[in-house]
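User: Can you help me understand a structure? I only have the sequence.
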Amino acid sequence: MGPVEPEVVADIEAHGLDDLWPDHGNRPWIRQERAANLSGYFLQKVNGHCVFLREDKSCAVHAVLGGHRKPAFCREYPFTLVQEPRGIVLTVREGCGGYFESAVDGTPLEDHAATVIDLPRAYPVQTFGKHPVALIPGLGVSPDDWLHLEERICADIVATDAQPDEHIASIRATMLQAVRRDPPEPDPLTAMKAMGAMLQVYRMVLDQAVRDASADAAEVSFAKQLRSVVIRAMSALPAGLPQLDRAARDYVSLMLRSQLLGKRFLPHGSVAVGLANFLHNVRTAMLAAERTADGVVTVHALAAVLTDHVRLTHNRSIREIQKKARPALVDLFMSV
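Assistant: Let's start by predicting it. Here is the structure, written out as C-alpha coordinates:
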Protein backbone atom coordinates (compact mmCIF):
# COMPACT_ATOMS: atom_id res chain seq x y z
CA MET A 1 0.00 0.00 0.00
CA GLY A 2 1.78 3.10 -1.15
CA PRO A 3 4.00 4.82 -1.92
CA VAL A 4 4.20 6.76 1.36
CA GLU A 5 5.97 10.10 1.16
CA PRO A 6 9.22 10.34 3.21
CA GLU A 7 7.89 13.36 5.12
CA VAL A 8 4.81 11.34 6.17
CA VAL A 9 7.07 8.53 7.36
CA ALA A 10 9.14 10.99 9.41
CA ASP A 11 5.98 12.59 10.85
CA ILE A 12 4.52 9.28 12.03
CA GLU A 13 7.86 8.09 13.40
CA ALA A 14 8.23 11.35 15.33
CA HIS A 15 4.78 10.94 16.86
CA GLY A 16 5.30 7.28 17.74
CA LEU A 17 3.20 4.18 17.10
CA ASP A 18 1.60 3.62 20.50
CA ASP A 19 -1.38 5.90 19.80
CA LEU A 20 -1.72 4.86 16.18
CA TRP A 21 -1.16 1.09 16.41
CA PRO A 22 -1.37 0.14 20.10
CA ASP A 23 -0.69 -3.59 19.64
CA HIS A 24 2.21 -3.19 17.20
CA GLY A 25 4.55 -5.21 19.39
CA ASN A 26 7.55 -3.51 17.78
CA ARG A 27 6.55 -4.87 14.39
CA PRO A 28 7.46 -2.64 11.41
CA TRP A 29 4.65 -0.48 10.03
CA ILE A 30 6.40 0.24 6.70
CA ARG A 31 8.80 -1.50 4.38
CA GLN A 32 11.05 -0.27 1.61
CA GLU A 33 10.64 -1.68 -1.88
CA ARG A 34 13.24 -1.35 -4.58
CA ALA A 35 12.38 -2.86 -7.95
CA ALA A 36 12.39 -1.88 -11.61
CA ASN A 37 8.95 -0.28 -11.47
CA LEU A 38 8.36 0.03 -7.73
CA SER A 39 10.37 1.93 -5.15
CA GLY A 40 9.83 3.82 -1.92
CA TYR A 41 8.06 3.23 1.40
CA PHE A 42 4.96 1.05 1.58
CA LEU A 43 2.53 0.41 4.43
CA GLN A 44 2.41 -3.05 5.94
CA LYS A 45 -0.88 -4.89 6.25
CA VAL A 46 -2.55 -6.74 9.10
CA ASN A 47 -5.38 -9.12 8.21
CA GLY A 48 -5.28 -7.76 4.68
CA HIS A 49 -5.71 -4.11 5.63
CA CYS A 50 -3.57 -1.18 6.73
CA VAL A 51 -1.99 -1.38 10.19
CA PHE A 52 -3.69 1.90 11.06
CA LEU A 53 -7.24 0.74 10.32
CA ARG A 54 -9.24 0.66 13.56
CA GLU A 55 -11.97 -1.79 14.48
CA ASP A 56 -14.60 0.85 13.71
CA LYS A 57 -13.15 1.10 10.13
CA SER A 58 -11.70 4.56 10.80
CA CYS A 59 -8.07 5.57 10.20
CA ALA A 60 -5.93 6.03 13.32
CA VAL A 61 -3.61 8.51 11.61
CA HIS A 62 -6.60 10.60 10.56
CA ALA A 63 -8.13 10.47 14.05
CA VAL A 64 -4.94 11.26 15.98
CA LEU A 65 -2.85 13.43 13.66
CA GLY A 66 -5.45 14.76 11.21
CA GLY A 67 -6.47 13.85 7.68
CA HIS A 68 -3.92 16.21 6.14
CA ARG A 69 -1.10 14.14 7.63
CA LYS A 70 -2.02 10.86 5.95
CA PRO A 71 -0.14 9.61 2.87
CA ALA A 72 -1.44 11.17 -0.35
CA PHE A 73 -2.89 7.92 -1.67
CA CYS A 74 -4.73 7.40 1.65
CA ARG A 75 -6.34 10.82 1.41
CA GLU A 76 -7.77 9.79 -1.95
CA TYR A 77 -9.00 6.38 -0.77
CA PRO A 78 -11.62 4.98 -1.36
CA PHE A 79 -12.10 7.19 -4.43
CA THR A 80 -10.56 6.78 -7.86
CA LEU A 81 -10.36 9.36 -10.63
CA VAL A 82 -10.22 8.91 -14.40
CA GLN A 83 -9.73 11.79 -16.82
CA GLU A 84 -11.67 11.11 -20.01
CA PRO A 85 -12.91 13.23 -22.95
CA ARG A 86 -16.20 13.98 -21.16
CA GLY A 87 -14.46 15.20 -17.99
CA ILE A 88 -13.39 13.56 -14.73
CA VAL A 89 -15.09 10.39 -13.50
CA LEU A 90 -15.15 9.81 -9.73
CA THR A 91 -15.95 6.32 -8.43
CA VAL A 92 -15.47 4.32 -5.23
CA ARG A 93 -13.29 1.21 -4.89
CA GLU A 94 -15.24 -1.97 -4.23
CA GLY A 95 -12.73 -2.95 -1.51
CA CYS A 96 -14.14 -0.19 0.71
CA GLY A 97 -15.64 -1.81 3.80
CA GLY A 98 -18.58 0.61 3.97
CA TYR A 99 -19.35 0.57 0.25
CA PHE A 100 -22.96 -0.57 0.37
CA GLU A 101 -23.97 1.34 3.51
CA SER A 102 -22.51 4.57 2.13
CA ALA A 103 -24.23 4.00 -1.20
CA VAL A 104 -27.58 3.80 0.59
CA ASP A 105 -27.33 6.74 2.99
CA GLY A 106 -23.87 8.34 2.61
CA THR A 107 -22.86 11.73 1.23
CA PRO A 108 -23.36 11.97 -2.56
CA LEU A 109 -20.16 11.60 -4.59
CA GLU A 110 -20.72 15.02 -6.14
CA ASP A 111 -20.13 16.56 -2.71
CA HIS A 112 -16.70 14.92 -2.50
CA ALA A 113 -15.57 15.69 -6.05
CA ALA A 114 -13.86 19.08 -5.65
CA THR A 115 -11.92 17.98 -2.56
CA VAL A 116 -10.76 14.72 -4.11
CA ILE A 117 -9.74 16.36 -7.39
CA ASP A 118 -7.62 18.93 -5.55
CA LEU A 119 -5.74 16.40 -3.41
CA PRO A 120 -1.97 16.04 -3.84
CA ARG A 121 -1.17 12.62 -5.25
CA ALA A 122 1.88 10.44 -5.75
CA TYR A 123 0.65 9.25 -9.16
CA PRO A 124 -0.99 11.30 -11.92
CA VAL A 125 -4.70 10.84 -12.53
CA GLN A 126 -5.35 7.99 -14.94
CA THR A 127 -6.31 9.15 -18.43
CA PHE A 128 -8.61 7.48 -20.92
CA GLY A 129 -9.20 8.25 -24.58
CA LYS A 130 -5.84 7.89 -26.29
CA HIS A 131 -5.96 4.22 -27.22
CA PRO A 132 -8.52 1.78 -28.67
CA VAL A 133 -10.51 -0.30 -26.20
CA ALA A 134 -10.30 -4.08 -26.51
CA LEU A 135 -13.76 -5.57 -25.96
CA ILE A 136 -12.40 -9.09 -26.04
CA PRO A 137 -8.79 -9.99 -26.89
CA GLY A 138 -8.24 -9.13 -30.55
CA LEU A 139 -11.48 -7.18 -31.04
CA GLY A 140 -11.63 -3.48 -30.18
CA VAL A 141 -13.39 -0.17 -30.72
CA SER A 142 -12.33 3.48 -30.62
CA PRO A 143 -12.47 5.35 -27.27
CA ASP A 144 -15.43 7.42 -28.52
CA ASP A 145 -17.31 4.29 -29.56
CA TRP A 146 -16.61 2.75 -26.17
CA LEU A 147 -17.99 5.78 -24.32
CA HIS A 148 -21.23 5.49 -26.30
CA LEU A 149 -21.36 1.77 -25.48
CA GLU A 150 -20.59 2.48 -21.84
CA GLU A 151 -23.52 4.92 -21.56
CA ARG A 152 -25.87 2.40 -23.12
CA ILE A 153 -24.64 -0.48 -20.95
CA CYS A 154 -24.84 1.53 -17.72
CA ALA A 155 -28.36 2.68 -18.59
CA ASP A 156 -29.37 -0.96 -19.18
CA ILE A 157 -27.88 -1.99 -15.82
CA VAL A 158 -29.82 0.74 -14.00
CA ALA A 159 -33.05 -0.20 -15.77
CA THR A 160 -32.76 -3.95 -15.21
CA ASP A 161 -33.07 -5.83 -11.92
CA ALA A 162 -30.96 -8.92 -12.59
CA GLN A 163 -28.56 -11.43 -11.09
CA PRO A 164 -24.82 -10.83 -11.80
CA ASP A 165 -24.54 -13.47 -14.53
CA GLU A 166 -27.50 -11.96 -16.34
CA HIS A 167 -25.94 -8.51 -16.31
CA ILE A 168 -22.67 -9.85 -17.75
CA ALA A 169 -24.53 -11.80 -20.45
CA SER A 170 -26.41 -8.63 -21.42
CA ILE A 171 -23.18 -6.60 -21.54
CA ARG A 172 -21.57 -9.28 -23.71
CA ALA A 173 -24.48 -9.23 -26.14
CA THR A 174 -24.43 -5.41 -26.37
CA MET A 175 -20.69 -5.28 -27.00
CA LEU A 176 -20.65 -8.01 -29.65
CA GLN A 177 -23.73 -6.67 -31.45
CA ALA A 178 -22.00 -3.27 -31.65
CA VAL A 179 -19.22 -4.87 -33.71
CA ARG A 180 -21.65 -7.05 -35.68
CA ARG A 181 -20.79 -10.32 -33.97
CA ASP A 182 -23.36 -12.81 -32.81
CA PRO A 183 -23.18 -13.37 -29.04
CA PRO A 184 -22.66 -17.01 -28.02
CA GLU A 185 -25.24 -19.04 -26.16
CA PRO A 186 -24.67 -19.46 -22.42
CA ASP A 187 -22.56 -22.50 -21.55
CA PRO A 188 -22.90 -23.26 -17.82
CA LEU A 189 -20.43 -26.15 -17.93
CA THR A 190 -17.65 -24.01 -19.41
CA ALA A 191 -18.42 -21.27 -16.87
CA MET A 192 -18.17 -23.77 -14.03
CA LYS A 193 -14.85 -25.14 -15.33
CA ALA A 194 -13.41 -21.62 -15.62
CA MET A 195 -14.53 -20.79 -12.09
CA GLY A 196 -13.09 -24.03 -10.77
CA ALA A 197 -9.74 -23.46 -12.46
CA MET A 198 -9.40 -19.97 -11.00
CA LEU A 199 -10.43 -21.08 -7.52
CA GLN A 200 -7.94 -23.93 -7.59
CA VAL A 201 -5.07 -21.58 -8.41
CA TYR A 202 -6.14 -19.14 -5.69
CA ARG A 203 -6.16 -22.00 -3.22
CA MET A 204 -2.63 -23.04 -4.23
CA VAL A 205 -1.36 -19.50 -3.60
CA LEU A 206 -3.11 -19.33 -0.21
CA ASP A 207 -1.79 -22.78 0.75
CA GLN A 208 1.72 -21.44 0.19
CA ALA A 209 0.95 -18.32 2.24
CA VAL A 210 -0.31 -20.41 5.14
CA ARG A 211 2.88 -22.49 5.10
CA ASP A 212 5.19 -19.46 4.96
CA ALA A 213 7.25 -19.78 8.13
CA SER A 214 8.66 -16.27 7.75
CA ALA A 215 5.27 -14.55 7.47
CA ASP A 216 3.69 -12.42 10.19
CA ALA A 217 1.27 -14.45 12.32
CA ALA A 218 -1.60 -12.05 11.59
CA GLU A 219 -1.02 -12.39 7.84
CA VAL A 220 -0.99 -16.19 8.12
CA SER A 221 -4.27 -16.01 10.02
CA PHE A 222 -5.76 -13.79 7.31
CA ALA A 223 -4.53 -16.19 4.60
CA LYS A 224 -6.27 -19.05 6.43
CA GLN A 225 -9.49 -17.02 6.53
CA LEU A 226 -9.29 -16.31 2.79
CA ARG A 227 -8.44 -19.94 2.03
CA SER A 228 -11.55 -21.06 3.90
CA VAL A 229 -13.61 -18.77 1.66
CA VAL A 230 -12.07 -20.29 -1.48
CA ILE A 231 -12.59 -23.84 -0.17
CA ARG A 232 -16.25 -23.13 0.65
CA ALA A 233 -16.74 -21.69 -2.84
CA MET A 234 -15.10 -24.73 -4.45
CA SER A 235 -17.32 -27.08 -2.43
CA ALA A 236 -20.50 -25.19 -3.34
CA LEU A 237 -19.69 -24.72 -7.04
CA PRO A 238 -21.09 -28.04 -8.37
CA ALA A 239 -24.52 -27.28 -6.90
CA GLY A 240 -24.72 -23.96 -8.74
CA LEU A 241 -25.01 -20.34 -7.71
CA PRO A 242 -27.54 -19.15 -5.13
CA GLN A 243 -29.79 -16.17 -5.75
CA LEU A 244 -29.07 -12.69 -4.36
CA ASP A 245 -31.74 -10.68 -2.58
CA ARG A 246 -32.80 -7.31 -4.03
CA ALA A 247 -30.41 -5.27 -1.91
CA ALA A 248 -27.49 -7.52 -2.88
CA ARG A 249 -28.45 -7.23 -6.55
CA ASP A 250 -28.45 -3.44 -6.21
CA TYR A 251 -25.03 -3.62 -4.53
CA VAL A 252 -23.54 -5.67 -7.37
CA SER A 253 -25.21 -3.43 -9.96
CA LEU A 254 -23.60 -0.36 -8.41
CA MET A 255 -20.17 -2.00 -8.31
CA LEU A 256 -20.54 -3.15 -11.90
CA ARG A 257 -21.24 0.39 -13.07
CA SER A 258 -18.22 1.59 -11.07
CA GLN A 259 -16.10 -1.02 -12.86
CA LEU A 260 -17.17 0.39 -16.21
CA LEU A 261 -17.17 4.10 -15.43
CA GLY A 262 -13.87 3.86 -13.54
CA LYS A 263 -12.29 1.98 -16.48
CA ARG A 264 -11.04 -0.69 -14.07
CA PHE A 265 -10.89 -3.16 -16.92
CA LEU A 266 -7.93 -1.36 -18.53
CA PRO A 267 -5.12 -3.08 -16.54
CA HIS A 268 -6.63 -6.44 -17.55
CA GLY A 269 -6.15 -5.80 -21.28
CA SER A 270 -9.81 -6.00 -22.32
CA VAL A 271 -13.30 -5.29 -21.07
CA ALA A 272 -14.08 -9.01 -21.16
CA VAL A 273 -11.19 -10.00 -18.88
CA GLY A 274 -11.76 -7.10 -16.49
CA LEU A 275 -15.46 -7.83 -16.09
CA ALA A 276 -14.82 -11.57 -15.83
CA ASN A 277 -12.40 -10.92 -12.98
CA PHE A 278 -15.09 -8.81 -11.28
CA LEU A 279 -17.68 -11.54 -11.88
CA HIS A 280 -15.33 -14.21 -10.53
CA ASN A 281 -14.98 -12.23 -7.29
CA VAL A 282 -18.76 -11.80 -6.96
CA ARG A 283 -19.46 -15.45 -7.76
CA THR A 284 -16.85 -16.59 -5.22
CA ALA A 285 -18.51 -14.48 -2.54
CA MET A 286 -21.97 -15.75 -3.54
CA LEU A 287 -20.83 -19.36 -3.26
CA ALA A 288 -19.03 -18.86 0.08
CA ALA A 289 -21.50 -16.53 1.83
CA GLU A 290 -24.03 -17.64 4.39
CA ARG A 291 -27.56 -18.14 3.06
CA THR A 292 -31.02 -17.62 4.49
CA ALA A 293 -33.35 -20.54 5.20
CA ASP A 294 -34.65 -20.05 1.65
CA GLY A 295 -31.14 -20.38 0.19
CA VAL A 296 -30.80 -16.67 -0.67
CA VAL A 297 -27.70 -14.53 -0.07
CA THR A 298 -28.39 -11.16 1.56
CA VAL A 299 -26.40 -8.00 0.90
CA HIS A 300 -24.73 -8.11 4.31
CA ALA A 301 -23.67 -11.74 3.87
CA LEU A 302 -22.32 -11.01 0.39
CA ALA A 303 -20.44 -7.85 1.40
CA ALA A 304 -18.86 -9.56 4.42
CA VAL A 305 -17.14 -12.06 2.12
CA LEU A 306 -16.63 -9.94 -0.98
CA THR A 307 -14.73 -7.07 0.64
CA ASP A 308 -11.92 -9.29 1.92
CA HIS A 309 -11.86 -11.36 -1.27
CA VAL A 310 -11.44 -8.20 -3.36
CA ARG A 311 -8.51 -7.22 -1.14
CA LEU A 312 -6.95 -10.61 -1.87
CA THR A 313 -7.14 -9.96 -5.61
CA HIS A 314 -5.10 -6.75 -5.14
CA ASN A 315 -2.15 -8.87 -4.00
CA ARG A 316 0.66 -8.76 -6.55
CA SER A 317 0.95 -12.56 -6.71
CA ILE A 318 -2.75 -12.83 -7.50
CA ARG A 319 -2.50 -10.10 -10.14
CA GLU A 320 0.24 -12.08 -11.88
CA ILE A 321 -1.99 -15.15 -11.82
CA GLN A 322 -4.83 -13.16 -13.33
CA LYS A 323 -2.59 -12.15 -16.23
CA LYS A 324 -1.69 -15.78 -16.93
CA ALA A 325 -5.31 -16.89 -16.47
CA ARG A 326 -6.81 -14.57 -19.08
CA PRO A 327 -8.00 -17.48 -21.28
CA ALA A 328 -10.02 -18.88 -18.36
CA LEU A 329 -11.45 -15.43 -17.62
CA VAL A 330 -12.43 -14.96 -21.28
CA ASP A 331 -14.15 -18.36 -21.12
CA LEU A 332 -16.09 -17.21 -18.06
CA PHE A 333 -17.14 -13.94 -19.69
CA MET A 334 -18.22 -15.64 -22.91
CA SER A 335 -20.13 -18.51 -21.30
CA VAL A 336 -22.29 -17.13 -18.47
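Now, to help you interpret it: The first strand starts at residue 30 and ends at 35. The chain has a mean pLDDT of 90. Let me know which part you'd like to focus on.
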